[in-house]
């Protein structure tokens, strides 16, 4: 690592900034999710995220020659999984309080841990098993109190289903990223994912699009720009600080959706959410610790 990259305080600041930007993206999506179709949101989010991404790659001298690839099918699979995960994530945000939908996204490390065992024959460790047990226990606590409630609407059920599906799809997408990163430029991986998501959004036109009004258009554009800059901030954060140093600040990001629910959307935090929160985050932390231990051993 070069000396210019070794700036942990700057890396931490960038990681916190990326969490704020991702939260801003989610807030914009939540604000219009009951009116704008999910496929249309995916398209705009991806299209406007492409702008800062291309500028970033161009500044780094990686556009366009850095997009060349020897593994087009690998990119196709990774991008398809990532695009499907984005659809599921936005569908979950549309049906659940923002804090609950965001909490479900923290299951991705748990599912990645499971996928590593099933697909890559990685060792089953105490940390890995503990992370899976805590994460799934958190989901059970989150859902269980409402299973027998007459207020447990179909939309809410589907919100949890889409949230869990997003976690699974993201896990498999991350496994593909791990594989592609051995030979492919990270900028190319991000670029083809955005393109695939745009195409997925366009493919949803027969299932319903609408002409957004000015407020909706502003939210769509901001969602894309926030998402694009968030990815760049996260990428730069890992260039300036070790992943182990940044890990605690990943869990700080749940604060912003909680505040958004309380202050912007006037949605109170349920007892189930407060009980599930430490379990899901604890499971994600154990899975992350296991991943770092394996990288050190290798």
Kindly describe this structure:
The chain contains twelve helices and no strands. It has 298 residues and is an all-alpha fold. The chain has one domain (3-297). It is a multi-pass membrane protein. It is found in: Membrane. One of its GO terms (cellular component) is membrane. Residues 10-143 form the EamA domain.
List the helices and strands and how they pair.
Elements: H1 8-32, H2 38-59, H3 72-95, H4 98-105, H5 108-120, H6 126-143, H7 154-180, H8 186-203, H9 214-240, H10 243-252, H11 255-263, H12 271-297
Helix pairs in contact: 1-9, 1-10, 2-3, 2-8, 2-9, 3-4, 3-7, 3-8, 4-12, 5-6, 5-7, 5-12, 6-12, 10-12
Main location: membrane
Protein name: EamA domain-containing protein
Domain EamA: 10-143
Please count the beta strands (DSSP E, at least 2 residues each).
0
Helix content: over 70%
Q: How many domain modules?
A: 1
Q: Radius of gyration from the CA trace? A: 19 Å
Shape: globular
Distance between the termini: 18 Å
* Oligomeric nature of the chains: single chain
Strand content bin? under 5%
Instruction: List segments where confidence is low: pLDDT < 50 over at least 5 consecutive residues.
Output: none
Major beta sheet summary:
none
**What is the N-to-C order of secondary-structure elements (H for helix, E for strand)?**
HHHHHHHHHHHH
By DSSP (H or I, 4+ residues per run), the number of helices equals: 12
Q: What is the structural class? A: mainly alpha
Q: Quote the average pLDDT.
A: 88
Transmembrane segments: 12-32, 38-59, 80-97, 103-120, 127-145, 157-177, 189-211, 217-238, 271-289
Main location: membrane
Keywords: Membrane, Transmembrane, Transmembrane helix
Membrane topology: Multi-pass membrane protein
């Amino acid at each position: 690592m070069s000396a210019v990259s070794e700036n942990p305080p700057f890396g931490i600041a960038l990681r916190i900034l990326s969490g704020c930007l991702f939260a801003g993206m989610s807030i914009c999506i939540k604000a219009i999710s009951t009116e704008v179709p999910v496929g249309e949101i995916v398209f705009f989010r991806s299209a406007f995220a492409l702008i800062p991404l291309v500028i970033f790659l161009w500044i780094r001298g990686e556009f366009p020659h850095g997009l060349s690839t020897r593994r087009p099918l690998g990119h196709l699979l990774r991008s398809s999984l990532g695009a499907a995960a984005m659809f599921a994530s936005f569908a979950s945000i549309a049906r659940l309080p923002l804090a609950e939908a965001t909490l479900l996204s923290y299951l991705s490390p748990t599912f990645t841990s499971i996928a590593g065992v099933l697909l890559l024959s990685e060792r089953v460790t105490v940390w890995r098993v503990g992370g899976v047990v805590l994460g799934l226990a958190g989901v059970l606590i989150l859902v269980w109190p409402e299973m027998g409630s007459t207020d447990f609407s179909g939309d809410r059920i589907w919100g949890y289903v889409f949230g869990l599906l997003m976690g699974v799809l993201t896990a498999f997408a991350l496994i593909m990223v791990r594989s592609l990163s051995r030979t492919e430029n990270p900028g190319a991986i991000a670029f083809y994912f955005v393109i695939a998501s745009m195409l997925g959004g366009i493919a949803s036109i027969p299932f319903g699009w609408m002409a957004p009004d000015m407020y909706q258009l502003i939210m769509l554009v901001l969602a894309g720009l926030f998402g694009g800059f968030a990815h760049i901030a996260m990428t730069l954060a890992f260039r300036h600080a070790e992943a182990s140093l940044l890990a605690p600040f990943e869990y700080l990001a749940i604060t912003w959706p909680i505040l958004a629910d309380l202050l912007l959307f006037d949605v109170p935090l349920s007892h189930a959410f407060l009980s599930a929160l430490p379990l899901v985050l604890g499971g994600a932390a154990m899975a992350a610790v296991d991943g770092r231990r394996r990288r050190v051993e290798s």
